[in-house]
Amino acid sequence: MSELIYRNESYEIIGICMRVHSELGAGFLEIVYKDALEYEFRKANILFEREKKYEVNYRGIILPHSFYADFVIQQKIILEVKAVKKIVNAHISQSINYLKVSNNKLALLVNFGEPSFFYKRIIY
What's the CATH number where 18 sits? Predict the structure, then answer.
């Protein structure tokens, strides 16, 4: 069996997300969960960038619209935060595209909108 990429880092990130969900529950806007996560990452001394801008290169030109990753943890893991009723394939596709543009290998897609915390590891 192959080893999980960034296993320890992802467990720590998911643990923090679970703590935030446990404390706040479902029903808040996405921004509230992001604020709580930022607080927890700072408290845990985890290196992160919030709303990191990535440009999209298409056939050698930079397109006018960029995307902003919710969080980039330790310069290698994208954390995509949702607060929706249910994760759908479009959310997964979005995370895959973020990985392509950022050249990162792992995205963690988390959803605070469901009664039970949900996450998915996405490898590219």
Answer: 3.90.320.10
With left for phi above 0 and alpha for psi between -120 and 50, is residue 51 left, alpha or beta?
left
Q: How far is CA 77 from CA 11, 46, 102, in A?
A: 12, 12, 10
In a domain, 75, yes or no: yes
Q: Is residue 90 part of a domain?
A: yes
24-55 pLDDT, tens per residue?
A: 999 999 999 999 999 999 999 999 999 999 99
Tokens describing residue 71: 């969080």
2 lies in a domain?
A: no
pTM passes above 0.85: yes
Stretch (H or E) spanning 58: strand 57-58
Distance CA(107)–CA(86), nearest Å, equals 18
Rounded Cα gap, residues 101 and 39, in angstroms:
27
Domain residues for the domain of 109 are 7-123
CA distance between the termini of the chain: 18
Report whether 25 contacts 33 (CB < 8 A): no
CB 61 within 8 A of CB 52: no
